[in-house]
Write a structure and sequence with these properties.
CATH architecture of the largest domain: Orthogonal Bundle
CATH superfamily of the largest domain: Intergrase catalytic core
Strand order of the largest sheet: 1-2-3
Order of helices and strands: HHHHHHHHEEEHHHHHHH
Number of domains: 2
Structural class: mainly alpha
Largest sheet: 3 strands, antiparallel
CATH topology of the largest domain: hpI Integrase, Chain A
Number of helices: 15
Distance between the termini: 74 Å
């Protein structure tokens, strides 16, 4: 066995689990990355994975692996960068334990992330929100559950993983109504609830009749919904709502779209730092994508830099004929 195998094992058990207390999702993602990398390198070199050394996984090999992810496996640049982040983490750990491989390790750590086009976030307008919330059949148990789930998602901006892991004990409906969330990187935050959401949630939890540790939004069997199940029910209700709201038919509505919708609603009345705090973002940089999606913010910026004496707002032609010519 080479030095790579025990170092990788120690990286998982010592660094990720013991020192960093990484979440199960992080451990799973990093494990899958290493499994893919070792399988690829084994096929390229003809060596068993346990016989591969650090010098076998040098910068050219890692570069070929990243190309394989995109070209052969069809991974997006975002996924490619996530795999590279796991590799960088391993090699930074190995740099402290195996200075004799410093040159190889340094070259791998210097492999940059791939740039990619960032699309403007998709979110729902007010009339689309109303249509979506009317879609579930509230005469049925499942319809009432789905209505409460969709309203909570839009009003709180919870990630889908946070939504399915929400327990009854995390919901407070008296003074200071809110939901307590354990988000990414084990960060706790509290999302306040509006009176409308409190009313719906109070009725739903009374009907749901669960214990403190039971999921707020269960299946018929009482088990927590999965993220895939939430995506499926959202797709179903979006299709139904599109019959009354045609603009929904042109949008790909996912659980994260509801989070984006919450962010845009907040941004209309709050500063970006408040929105970042509400969403549980590590940095305001993650929240800045919403600034690009809101044309009203851009219009206000234009008005703020207008020459002195210029009336605010958009230019309007003073005459019907001029208006016609402007529209050509």
């Amino acid at each position: 066995m080479t030095v790579l195998a025990p170092s990788m094992q120690a990286w998982f058990t010592d660094r990720l689990v013991n020192q960093r207390d990484a979440s199960p999702r992080t451990i799973t993602a990093y494990r899958d990355t290493m499994r893919l990398l070792l399988t690829f390198a084994s096929e390229q070199t003809g060596k068993l994975p346990s016989r591969l050394d650090i010098d076998d996984l040098d910068a050219p090999m890692i570069g070929a692996f990243l190309d394989h992810l995109e070209q052969d496996r069809g991974n997006s640049p975002r996924t490619r960068n996530a795999r590279l982040a796991a590799i960088h983490s391993l090699y930074r750990y190995c740099a402290l334990r195996h200075p004799e491989h410093a040159h190889t390790i340094a070259r791998v750590i210097e492999i940059p992330n791939k740039r990619y086009d960032r699309t403007i976030v998709s979110y729902l307008e007010q009339h689309e929100i109303k249509a979506l919330l009317r879609a579930p059949d509230t005469t049925t148990w499942l319809g009432r559950r789905d209505h409460a789930l969709l309203l909570t998602a839009i009003q709180t901006g919870l990630r889908v993983s946070e939504l399915v892991n929400l327990r009854i004990e995390h919901v407070r409906l008296d003074t200071g109504a809110s939901v307590k969330v354990l988000g990414k990187r084990r960060k706790q935050r509290v999302a306040p609830l509006t009176p409308d959401t409190v009313r719906v949630m109070r009725a739903w939890l009374k009907e749901r009749q669960g214990e403190a540790d039971d999921p707020v939004f269960p299946t018929r069997q009482g088990r927590p919904l999965t993220p895939k199940a939430v995506a499926w029910l959202l797709d179903k209700h979006t299709s139904a709502a599109a019959a009354r709201c045609p603009s929904l038919a042109s949008k790909h509505v996912t659980p994260h779209t509801l989070r984006h919708t919450n962010a845009m609603l907040l941004l209309a009345k709050n500063d970006i730092a408040t929105v970042a705090l509400w969403l549980g973002h590590e940095s305001i940089t993650s929240t800045e994508i919403y600034l690009h999606a809101d044309n009203n913010i851009k219009q206000k910026a234009i008005e703020n830099v207008a020459p002195p004496g210029t009336p605010p707002g958009r230019y309007k032609p003073p005459d019907q004929l001029l208006a016609f010519l402007e529209g050509l």
